[in-house]
Write a structure and sequence with these properties.
heterodimer; A: 233 residues; mainly alpha; MetI-like fold; disordered C terminus; B: 244 residues; alpha/beta; four-stranded antiparallel β-sheet; 10 strands
């Protein structure tokens, strides 16, 4: 209890004093997860929407793979990304291992199935007669897609929130492929692990509070976007 | 009507689902400016016929001509397709305001007079006071009136109505029928109306067709259908004696 209280005080102290190390870690975490979320959203929403709209042979198999991907253990993702980018791996020449790039790749692999899977479920939950209704009103396939995604916006935003939640708090994969290198690949989650191992519980709790606050603020922002921008009034 | 050029001409048109023929129209013409009622029991193929007329589905075989253009196989170009629209039995409104629902089709077309056209139609369906209401808050009758306004705002050449007043109260039915008759009379909109309600067909339609098991049994001026049907099955259906 004492550790938690002093951790809270230290968190406030670190933030108020604009601790440069803390802000560097925060910015790196946001940069990494922001880029990863952008990529998985840009890919995941169209893929999920397409899977939701289109009926094709093998759709069930693809869906099963996608749902399996939604539960991928991050350490397994970390292992495979590690092997791919290791010196003897197929993409070893890129020399991305122990860099933010490899961490972003790992986070995209973790969050993409969540964004695509929840987007697909959101689109499949729409009124089955909606597509025909829009077609009858003269919508082009592109206009239909945009309208249906807008109609499914609550679920689509939930997919983005789920994707963000899966990576901002993720530690296993980024630790494996990033290495937690100070000044280069250390992010909030890996720093928490390190400080806990070192017995610096105050700092670990301070970082945890910052991480929780960031998650809270980001989700609030996403929710505000959901309620505002995409609804014509 | 028979002397005029038909807007639609269907020749030996069939529609199959999984090898089962659900529609088999040997010959049907629909003329510009008429109201044609399509009556028949459930599952007779009436709604399937409407979907073909709206180019939402392609015929499995046969020839459909619209405004002199063959449209079997690939649907006609977008500008032609956009001259036809349907009000379905269970209309789907978007999760937006009433105004935005009526404006939807106009916005798809990049129309510049959205506001004026939307309010013109909302006044017609007597829902102008609900323009800012959320569509999800509407009653069944109001939903159908919004759907009708949304279709009419597009100034369609052809209006297809798939049981638009099913399950509605008499006041809503009367209002919708009045509007359908008015747009047909004033603007020459061609209407194909699917209905179970033979009285509605009699009130609205210039001609009526009876469809049974995917086939058109008889198509004739509505009064003829009601007073002197050529086919005994038509008479039985009109008198409510047909068990199906």
């Amino acid at each position: 209890m004492h550790d938690m209280f002093s951790g809270l005080l230290q968190a406030i102290d670190l933030i108020l004093n604009l601790d440069p190390l803390l802000f560097e870690i925060i910015l790196r975490s946001l940069y990494m997860s922001g880029i990863a979320l952008f990529i998985s959203t840009a890919l995941g929403i169209p893929v999920g929407a397409w899977l939701g709209f289109k009926k094709f042979a093998g759709r069930k198999v693809v869906t099963i793979f996608l749902y399996t991907g939604m539960g991928l253990p991050p350490v397994v993702v970390g292992l495979f990304v590690y092997l791919i980018f290791s010196r003897s791996g197929p993409l070893g020449d890129l020399q991305w291992l122990f860099s933010l790039k490899a961490m972003i790749v790992a986070q995209v692999v973790i969050s993409f199935p969540l964004v695509a899977g929840f987007s697909m479920a959101a689109v499949m939950g729409l009124d089955p007669n909606l597509a025909r209704q829009l077609q009858s009103l003269g919508a082009t396939p592109w206009q239909m897609g945009v309208t249906m995604l807008t109609e499914a916006r609550t679920g689509v935003f939930a997919s983005v929130v789920a994707g963000f939640g899966s990576i901002i708090s993720e530690v296993g994969a980024v630790m494996m492929v990033g290495g937690n290198i100070e000044g280069r690949t250390r992010v909030l989650t890996t720093a928490i692990v390190l400080e806990t191992r070192k017995g610096n519980f105050d700092l670990a709790i301070a970082l945890s509070i910052v991480l929780l606050s960031l998650s809270f603020l980001t989700n609030t922002l996403i929710l505000r976007l959901q309620e505002g921008n995409f609804v014509r009034r | 009507m028979s002397g005029a050029n038909p807007l639609y001409r269907l020749q030996n048109v069939t529609r199959q689902y999984d090898g089962r023929v659900v529609l088999n129209v040997t010959h049907l013409e629909i003329f510009q400016g008429e109201i044609l009622a399509l009556v028949g029991p459930s599952g007779a193929g009436k709604s399937t016929l409407l979907r073909l007329l709206n180019f939402l589905e392609a015929a499995s075989s046969g020839q459909i001509t619209f405004a002199g253009r063959a449209v079997n196989g690939a649907p006609p170009p977008l500008p032609v397709r956009r001259t036809v629209t349907t009000v379905f039995q269970r209309s789907v409104l978007l999760n937006r305001t009433v105004f935005e629902n009526v404006a939807y089709g106009l916005r798809l077309r990049g129309d510049r007079k959205v506001r004026a056209k939307v309010y013109e139609q909302l006044v017609q369906v007597r829902l102008e006071h609900m323009a800012r209401a959320k569509a999800q808050s509407l009653s069944g009758g109001e939903i159908q009136r919004v759907a009708l306004a949304r279709a009419l705002a597009l100034r369609p050449r052809v209006l297809l109505l798939d049981e638009p007043t099913a399950n509605l109260d008499p006041a809503n039915v009367a209002l919708i029928e009045t509007i359908i008759a008015a747009v047909n009379r004033r603007h020459g909109v061609t209407v194909a109306l699917v209905t179970h309600n033979t009285f509605q067909a009699r009130r609205l339609a210039h001609r009526t067709a009876l469809i049974l098991e995917g086939r058109i049994v008889e198509v004739a001026p509505t009064e003829t259908i009601f007073t002197a049907p050529a086919d005994p099955r038509t008479g039985a259906f009109i008198r409510g004696e047909m068990v199906y």
